[in-house]
Amino acid sequence: AHEMLDRAIKFGGILGADVLITGGGQIEGASLEEQAAEFVKVFPPFLDKAEKAGMSTSMYAVHGNSFFTCLEAYELVWEHLPQVGIKYDPANWCHHGADYLEVARKHGDKVGYVHIKEHLYIDGELASQPPAGMGDIAFPKVLAAGLSGFYLAIYLLLWVLILRGIAIEFRSLIRDAMWRRFWDGTFAAASLLAPVLLGAALGNVLRGVPLGAGGWFTLPLFDSFSPAGALGILDWYTVLTGLTALAAIGHHGALFLAWKTDGVVADRSRAAAGWLWFATVGLWLLATLATLQVAPGLLRNALARPLALLCTLLFLAGLAVSFTARRQGRELLAFLGSAAFLVGLLAATAAALYPTWLASTLDPAWTLTARNAAAASQSLRAGLLWWPPGFVLAAVYFVVLFRLHRGKAQAAAEGEGY
Q: In what order do the strands lie in the sheet with 111-114?
């Protein structure tokens, strides 16, 4: 954490930032006075570094990862470090029932940065949020917990997606075989990691996360490597779900290439789709058996819910269609069958999980569900107004996209095509 803060100060100075915004951290089980005393002892060097970089320092009041959750915390610190400011976000105070105006009335001179999110609170209750973020409008607690808990995984996913784009852009800048092989390898590695990370994220949702009473959790990349021990993003179960996702998406992509290309690429794609189908089935069966051990309640839910059973029939039918249609040379039908398998599998999983969003492995009472994590009714109604046209626009986009690129992709007459 200290190294990350040093880097933030360094880059803030490079960018010419005026304010360094950070939290005070938390010590489990320590009193407010003890945490303030530890902060006063540890933080002065960072204040000096920030000042030398041309920045003042303001602390945010976010419950779960900072002890600055009340005015008393700031006042204890100001006795020794009066230069520490407040990162003033009214939503942080309102969300926990505090009077945000008291902060401005009593210590307005200490506010170093103001952050307004346009959240609407009525009598201390969240009533509405801006409609730009649909996930935030419907289930803000899930969004907040997931983004903070899976912070490392999200950044790893962003990096592999960025590397894919960089590899495509840089590959042909230099006409050198070694240069091109390096970027081809980078593109391949990033493309392999992306579905593994997405599958591992799904495995974390199925397994559960160490969600605390405050609705927050943190996960290292790995720890005990066992879903029964100290949890990390990766353990044997989430690695298995990640490999299952890799096989399923690889199979889907191979069928797409078999449909949209010809020549050597199409032949290789058909061959790859053949063994990837068997890999997908084998890994899916292993992942299903493992899920019965890690989260046995999901099977009971799936068997008791008609929607889950219907979606199960959909993905099993899709799996069969993708196999038989590929053998018959009907590439489009095989691709659609694979799509039905993916959609049906995800839908069956969601139906079996409902109403759970994030299950707590610490205490079932702390689990986030569609009921206890939902936004106010006004926000949900706003979401219902925005989602249908959003889906229609997305559907129109894909129809136009596939219409523009209908038929087989034609290889370039010379070179490698890009």
A: 19-22, 56-60, 85-88, 111-114
Cβ contact 102:71 at 8 Å = yes
pLDDT in tens, 77-92: 999 999 999 988 877 7
Closest CA to 351 of 396, 404, 320, 315: 315
Please count the CA atoms within 13 angstroms of the CA of 7 that sit on its side-chain side.
4
Residue ranges of the alpha helices (H) in 233-296? 236-260, 263-294
Considering the entire predicted model, what is its pTM? 0.70
Q: Residue 74 is encoded by which pair of tokens?
A: 């700031």
Domain count across the chain = 2
21 and 160 fall within a common domain? no
| Domain with 111 in it | 2-117
**26 and 174 belong to one structural domain:** no
Amino acid at 298: L
Q: Assess whether 102 and 186 both reside in one domain.
A: no
Terminus-to-terminus CA distance in the chain, angstroms? 42
**For the chain, how many residues are written?**
418
Residue 63 tokens, joined: 């419950």
| CA count, 13 A, side-chain hemisphere, 54 | 9
- Is the residue at 378 inside a domain? no
Which residues lie below 8 Å from residue 209, measured CB to CB, with a gap of 6+?
A: 149, 217, 219, 231, 358, 359, 360, 361
Give the per-residue pLDDT at 316: 97
- The 10s digit of each residue's pLDDT in 346-382 is 999 999 999 999 999 999 999 999 988 887 777 788 7
Q: How far apart are CA 340 and CA 317, in angstroms?
A: 8
